[in-house]
Amino acid sequence: MKQTVAVIGVGFVGRAHVDALRRLGIPIRGILGSSKERGAESSQALGLEKSYASLEELAADPDITAVHICTPNHVHFEQASKLMRAGKHVLCEKPLAMDSRESEMLLQIARETKCVGGVAYNLRYYPLCQQARSMIQKGEIGEPHTAHGSFLQDWLLHPTDWNWRLEQNLGGELRAVSDIGTHSMDLLMWLTGKKIVEVCADLATVIPVRRKPRGRVETFKKADESGYDEMPMITDDYATMLLHFQNGMRGVVTVSQVSAGHKAKLGFGIDGSTGSLWWNAEDPNVMWIGRRDTANGSMLKDPALMSPEARPYAVYPGGHTEGYPDTFMQLFRDFYEYIDTGDFSAPRKFPTFQTGHDEMLLCDAILKSSQTKSWQQVQWD
Questions:
Q1: 20 to 30 A Cα–Cα from 203, which one of 30, 53, 333, 356?
Q2: Pairing status of strand 89-92 against strand 66-69
C-alpha cells in the first residue's frame, strides 16, 4: 500500500477503522478529534504520531493522501468536500450525507477533483456474504424472486438510552432507516444485482420521549449520572419497507433499534426458483442453503470450499471464525488496492460515493412514502 492516511473521529467506529488500517499495514499519520484535547488524548492512547487541531490543518498536510471520516452525519459533507478539494481520497462512514442534495454534490466534487470516494458499507464483506453473491450470480439458486432483509438492535430500547443519532439536526430526518436500514438495503441490492425501484414504508417512533444526559455519551456506552433533560423524539426507532426491485423481484426489510436481545442481527434471505440462502451477522460463519427436492444444508465459512470470487475475502482457514472487524479490513483492502493501481477508470469493487448517493435517494423515497402512506418510486439519477 502506497498511501498515508488520517482518521477523523475517535469513537467506536473510528477505532475500528484504525485497527483495520493497522492490520493492513497502512500508515496512519494522525487523527482529528471532536476537540483538540480529545484528539490529543486519543492520539496518545492509540500510539499515533500526530493529533490535528483542525480540519484545515489536516487538509493542508501534504503527507496525507487519504482520510477516513468517522464523525456524526451532519459534518460529513463539509469534511468530505474540503478534503477532496485539497486532493485527498475519502472513505466516509454511512450515511454519506444528510440528504441526497448533499450526496449529489459530493459525487460532483469527486469527479471534479478526480479523488476516489468510498462509503463504509462494510457488512458486504463478511466472507459468506461474498459467497452468497457469487452463488446468486452463478444461478445456483435459480432466478431470485423474493428478498428478505432485517437489522435488529436493542441499544436504544430504554428511554434513558441516548446517542447523537437521536437528534435530527445531527443525524437527519431518518434514523433507524439511514443508520442500519441502508446497510440492509445495500446488501440486498448488491447480492442480487437488482435495484429497488419502488417502496412502501411504515415508520414508527416507539419511544416518544427520551432522557438526554447532560454528560457525554459514546455509541453503545451508558450515560453517566450527571442528570438528564426530557426530549421529544420524532425520528424512527422502527421501520418496515415493502420493496419492488427491478425485473419484478419483491422484498421486505424490517429494521429496529428497540428489539430486546438483538445486538446486531443483520440478516438476509434470498429465495430463488431452485433454492434459498439465509444468513445473519450474529452467527456470521454459517449460511443456510434451502432446497425443495433435496436435503437442506448449512455452509460453514471455509475458503477451501468457497468460490474463487469469494475466497480472497476469507483470511483464516475453516473452523476459524471471522467477524465484524474483518469486514473493515477487507473493504479497506479493496479501496486502497484500487487507489494504488492509479487506473480510476477501472470498475470499483468497493461501495463508492455513488453507492452512498443511491442510499440517500432510497431514503428520500422511504421518507415520502411514510409521510404520504403510499407507494413511492425511487427517483434514480
A1: 356
A2: parallel
